[in-house]
Batch of 2 targets.
Target 1
Amino acid sequence: MIPETSSGMNWKQTVDLLNILLRLYRLLWQVSPFHLLGNLFFRVLLALHPVVQLYITTALVNRVALVITEGHSIVGALNIILLQAGLFIASSGVRALDGMIMASMKTKTRFHIEEKMAVHSSRLPLVHFDRPDFHDSFHRAMASQNSLFLIDNSFAIIQSLLTFSGYFAVVAGFHWILAVGLLLFVTPSLIVNFRLGRQRFLQMVMQTPVARKAQYVFYLLTGRDAAKEVRLFDLSNYLLGAWRSLFWKNANEQLRLERKGLAMNWGVDAFGTLVGGALLTGLAWLGTKGRLTIGQYVALTEAFSSANNQLMIIANNLAIIHQNILFARELFAFFELPEEEQSAEQRRMPERITRGIEVRDLSFCYPNRAEPSIRDINLHIAPGQKIAIVGDNGAGKSTLAKCMLGLYTPTTGSVCIDGADIRNLERSDLRRKITAVFQDYVRYQMTVRENIGFGSLERMHDDAWLEVAAAKSGADEFIDRMPQRFDALLGPMFEGGRELSHGQWQKIAIGRAYFRDAEIVVLDEPTASMDPLTEAMVFENFLRMAEGKTAIIISHRLGICKAVDRIYVMKNGRIIEQGTHEELLGQKRGIPAHVRNAVEVV
């Protein structure tokens, strides 16, 4: 959600921002009402302390003046000093308790927000993750952790308002003009800081795409994934140049805004100095009229100075609150992104598929793209049938697979299992009956047990099942050489982790798919980096494992076309040919050359 570009705020915008602040406080109340009330109570005590000290200072100065000028006993002054010291010690204790409670509340709130973001992200439609604007939104939502400062800022305002109200009442008791002078301190600072806060937020929104790209290029320079190619192709100078350009593009814009802000605040400070001088002159004038004692003069001078500080605290915190409320708006906007659609009609997945999978007039278009990636797809997979979907890279094979698995919601058409649209099936029930290995499988920097066991969490600690899955995928040959076997840590990210070759990681991913005893099995080009012998073994094991199950193999390099029941050939998002291995050999026209060669492999 991007705000309007105007630097001013109309009434509707003010109401919207107040609503966001109330939402944040409702969230705080939900996280920990005890901490919220405790902080409010302590801030009230801290707010009253300076006003009480003002009266004590007045009494102390007057008492000391009598001691010096008239020889009164010092005992009275000492009693006041002891009272003042006791109040300072008590105030320090209250401030420490307030800090401890505030730190605890911030920690709990940060945990609550991050947990909620993680849960919500896992429930968003998969297609969101193919959209650059979604990643920009998520980046801003993560930056909205700054909205936690709203807790401190808003409590600081409450405390300062109470303190200022006490000072204002004291000053107004002497002359109303002095009270008006106090108010003049805050107006310019409020206007300037509000405008700066809004401009900073708008700048952050506009700079998000460049900031993300700069982070990505920096990761290429410093991360492991690109390290080999950066050195081999001598890319460091080019990438450094790109990073410098992106970094300074944003940095220069930020510096221009900060220079503007410093100049405006200098003007505010100069104005405040003039107003302060006028107020001190007013106090001197009241002194000439005999309306002030020495203690009152000292106390009022302190009141002016302290009230000015309180007003500046209020102005600065209001500006920060305004800026951070805009960050919080991005957070709440992220939470409002619709999760995966849940049909009102939630049906159970059949225990055994009896009628098969039917794709009817299926089309899918990625967001922000004019042309659909797949269109007018119709096919039927009988129970236990094994099919292959082949075609060029970019032909739409993987997109079709994701629609058939229920990971993408079709733009038009439907995917049905035993006549039931998969959108009407219970999602968790549907996914328990499906397993898949994708091209971009995950390399979990965790143990072998977890890497394979994620296929079926309830059996993760069943070593017998792990042995079978590892053997079927061929991963057992290197797992058995590890001293800790299934408890060995994989990947270089954490100490003690063992890196695997690309082919070994693929076998782990295939083992994860085997580990789930699923009704439908999908292999989306999982053997692309394997040698022909290993590939043949994996497919042989796969077909053995898939006996009696519905199997879908997606590839542009398929050496086992003879072993599947039916082959579908895709091009430009459509199915252009289909048939058995023998039938397609007689229909070579229109089939991509490398796919035709794959079909002809004996």
Target 2
Amino acid sequence: MRLPRLRILLLASSALAVQATVQCARGQATLPEITVTPPKEAPKTKPVQKQKAPVAAKAPAPVAAPPPAGPPPESPFITETKAFNAARENILPKIGVSTYELSHQDIEALPQGTNAPLDKVLLQAPGVTLDSAASGNLHVRNEHANLQYRVNGIIIPDGVSGFGQLLETSFVGSMTLVTGALPAQYGLRNTGLVDIQARSGAQDPGGTISIYGGNRSTFTPSIEYGGTSGRTEYFFTGRGFFTDLGLENTTSAINAIHDWTQQGRAFGYLSTLLDDTTRLTTISGISIQKYQIPNNPGQPPQFAFLGVSDFDSAALDQRQLERNFYNVIALQKKLDGADMQIAYFSRYSTVHFMPDPIGDLVFNGVSSDVFRSSFLNGVQGDAAFRLNPAHTLRTGFYTSAESTQNVTKDTVLPVDPVTGAPPVDPVTGAPIGRPFDVADANAKMGYLLGVYVQDEWKLTNKLTLNLGIRFDQMYQFVDANQFSPRASLVYKPVEGTTLHFGYARYFTPPSQVIAGPTNLALFDNTTQQPASCPPPHPESCAGPVLPERSHYFDVGVTQKVLPGLEVGVDAYYKIARDLLDDGQFGQAYVLTGFNYDKAFNKGVELTAKYKYGNLRAYANLAWAQQMGTNVVSNQFLFGPDELAYIASHYIYTDHAQTWTGSAGVSYLWNGTRFSTDVIYGSGLRNDFANTGHLPLYTQVNAGISHEFKWDDFKPTTVRFDVINVFDTIHEIRDGSGIGVFAPQFGPRRAYYVGLSQKF
């Protein structure tokens, strides 16, 4: 039958169409062609045309999502390192005090950047006063020295010379000046804490090689490099420094006479995560500095001997060599509810002053070859225990052993025991005194011990009470001890406002190397015989240098006024017994200590900081007053009239400056940074018993730097700096005042250029 055959063909075609539809729905390609062949018996008709099924549209290929905005995620090692750093900060917090922080970026934004010495960077903090290198470089809150330096929470002990020329600025990751009523874990040096966090090789990998220099034949090459290897990070920096202005010029002239210096400094930091809860850190540093002592021309001779009665003071050849080496190894443990760190530290420091054998006798009546050394080893341990959400208990200890040597060989002239004048030929009247040597030496192994405990008590979410007590014991040229209570309140009434009040009892041992006794009998009937202490020498002529004891009160408030703008005010008052001071009582650039029986120190500081985008600005102003009375140690250093006046009057200390200010601003625009800063002071003390003061001064510095970015190389930075833009003449010291031997002037205008290449 023809009909059934045709029906079968139609049914087959329908099946193929259904199959093609299913394939299309599944996203497959074009449907198969369908051809229907008519049966032979059918009448002739037009052949059925081939038909193509409609082509299904291809689904669009999936588009990859764009990477998230912002910096790439931190590596696990950096995250772990930050956790250890936070734990270390928990061990040694800064509660109830005034803090002023300078990050590495803040330092780079200053004129000269990291090429500026550390003491010059600290001048931008509130209440920090400029002084000469011979007098300690700087003073915080009108105190002389008495600053504590810590690197990564570990004490860097005192040496023979100042720290301003020891620590390298480019080594600093961040630096905080802490002042006020310090918590119990901070002892020994209490005027302020310079808390330095070393730069991190993990967060700042790579290296930089730089050259920098300019006027006064200044040339300073430097290199730094940091990175990681496994669970270890490291950072190293080294610098050479050569200039014709090593120490402050003794005149206001543009160039100093006989003032060349050669200096080298190197520092290294290594930190290894031994496991998830343990970190081992080592820090090492070296500093070697050679100085010519600048001359003051036109000085009249004061002594004559054996036909020598004249000498050109511009031709004097005095020199000084300073060396410092220190090492630290610290083990930190981070546990649930407890953080601990124990550190061993060592420091060796020397200073050697070499006189002009003839010239010093002509001008000073003595030629002193002075050598001082200090070798100190110690252990420091600190721990914090979180007892509950309201209480954190902190405790720790400090112990050190220090071996010091003071060796002085003085070439002196004889004097008549009656007249006190050098002997002369009775016929010709010519001086006949023959110089001879006197050697005075002392050595001491001294010990310092300290322990503390304190409780951070969160009374409410807004109010914190910090109570502590420490005990310190010294065994040096004098043995003494003291229990020192500490207390502070911190109140945060609203977001952005912090008030603090603190009280601290302080015990401050003298630096052992400047507290050594002097054998006055060796200098009887010589040009070094002290005028205030003729023989026989009573004990009151050379009383031993005593530890300072004081009560310290501090109150302050900080307020975030606008986003990026923070202002603060802080006031302090100190009552002291046996106030420590020191000075340069001879041509050698070394210091000798003494005490005022009673003293007070008071002041007010205003500060403001602003950061917004690429703009940084700050301003600080401080008023201060420090006065003392009655010298009770090393009285022979003073003239008899001065000594008598101080016994019945409160006098200003020589480093007391009434007004001190600093300010600065920097802006980064398209890779170019413009910066300027200024320091201001009303003048240090001078004249008899520090009754006068030098003129006020202002010094403005400026700088510009630009970072060039290359396609095939790492960035290159070029900078240009001007120091003392307006070339103002600033007399730091005029040679008068207590413990001031010679005049010193601030730098005249100078231009410097630098080139840095990262690698």
